């Protein structure tokens, strides 16, 4: 709370209501953030001057407070208004350049002791909660680091630390290289069909499509000449055309390319099959 007591003492003569004390507290938060008050009212004046103090007429209107601020090292105009509504004080902070507005509603009795307006040690209540509300809800978002920026900065610091550590390791002649790869790198492993990992390769490639032998003998891929035989075109007197889909595996049965005249000799009984002495 450094600085709040000095500010409160400098304006204690102008504090005549609980809302005055609350406006004084919010003004102190603005100063801590890096803003400076340049005057009261809505419109800029030729007498505007950056100051950490409140203007002399800051509490002349107990129902509506209007204060103007600028960054200590910039010219952006910020207009702070506080409107008393029943037992609450509604704050609005507007950036005059972008028209961006933030607001905060405070229950006066939650943070100001109306019976101790001129005693600094007793006038404010639950200051930590009030300070957090002002920072998170009222102060301009662009002046507060976002979680995403903080996360990026943290990752950048970690990357820089890792890079410095690697340089130290590389420059150390006694350093023994690590056996495990660094994070983000992938060791080079040979393919599963390259020795010494080729054992059992036939199980992984049963048809031998990657070269070498497979487990399953496919007559259409056995490498033997087949005289242009295409099972999808049909086999005379055995399979009609289209019975085998194009590209389908087909295990031939019977002689291919030669028609047996009927009747088939295998279908006739052998000579003398009924002679019991043969």
Provide a descriptive summary of the structure in words.
Keywords: Acetylation, Cytoplasm, Endoplasmic reticulum, Methylation, Phosphoprotein, Proteasome. Plays an important role in control of proteasome function. Inhibits the hydrolysis of protein and peptide substrates by the 20S proteasome. Also inhibits the activation of the proteasome by the proteasome regulatory proteins PA700 and PA28. It is found in: Cytoplasm; Endoplasmic reticulum. Belongs to the proteasome inhibitor PI31 family. By secondary structure, the protein is α+β, with helices and mostly antiparallel strands. The protein has a domain at 4-139: Protein Transport Mog1p, Chain A (3-Layer(aba) Sandwich), CATH 3.40.1000.30. Helix content is 26%, strand content 13%. The protein is built from seven helices and five strands; from the N terminus they run ααβββββααααα. It has helices spanning 4-11, 18-33, 108-111, 120-123, 127-138, 147-171, 201-204; strands at residues 35-40, 64-71, 78-85, 88-95, 101-107. The protein has a five-stranded antiparallel sheet with strand order 1-2-3-4-5. Mean pLDDT is 78; it is low at 143-147.
């Amino acid at each position: 709370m450094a600085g709040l007591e000095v500010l409160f003492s400098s304006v204690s003569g102008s504090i005549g209501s609980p809302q005055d004390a609350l406006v004084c507290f919010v003004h102190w938060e603005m100063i801590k953030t890096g803003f400076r008050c340049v005057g009261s009212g809505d419109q800029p004046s030729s007498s505007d001057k950056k100051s950490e103090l409140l203007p002399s007429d800051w509490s002349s209107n107990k129902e509506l407070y209007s204060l103007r601020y600028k960054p200590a090292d910039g010219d952006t105009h910020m207009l702070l208004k506080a409107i008393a509504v029943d037992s609450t004080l509604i704050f609005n902070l507007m950036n005059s350049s972008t028209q961006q507005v933030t607001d905060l509603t405070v229950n006066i009795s939650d943070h100001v002791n109306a019976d101790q307006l001129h005693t600094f040690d007793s006038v404010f209540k639950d200051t930590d909660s009030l300070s957090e509300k002002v920072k998170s809800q009222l102060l301009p978002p662009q002046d507060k680091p976002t979680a995403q920026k903080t996360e990026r900065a943290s990752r950048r610091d970690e990357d820089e630390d890792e890079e410095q550590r690697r340089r130290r390791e590389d420059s150390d002649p006694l350093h023994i290289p690590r056996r495990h790869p660094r994070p983000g790198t992938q060791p080079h492993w040979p393919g599963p069909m390259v020795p010494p990992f080729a054992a059992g390769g036939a199980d992984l490639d049963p048809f031998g499509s990657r070269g070498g032998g497979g487990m399953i003998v496919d007559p259409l891929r056995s490498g033997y000449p087949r005289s242009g035989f295409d099972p999808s075109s049909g086999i005379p007197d055995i399979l009609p055309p289209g019975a085998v889909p194009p590209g389908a595996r087909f295990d031939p049965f019977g002689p291919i390319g030669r028609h047996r005249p009927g009747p088939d000799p295998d279908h006739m009984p052998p000579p003398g099959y009924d002679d019991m002495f043969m």
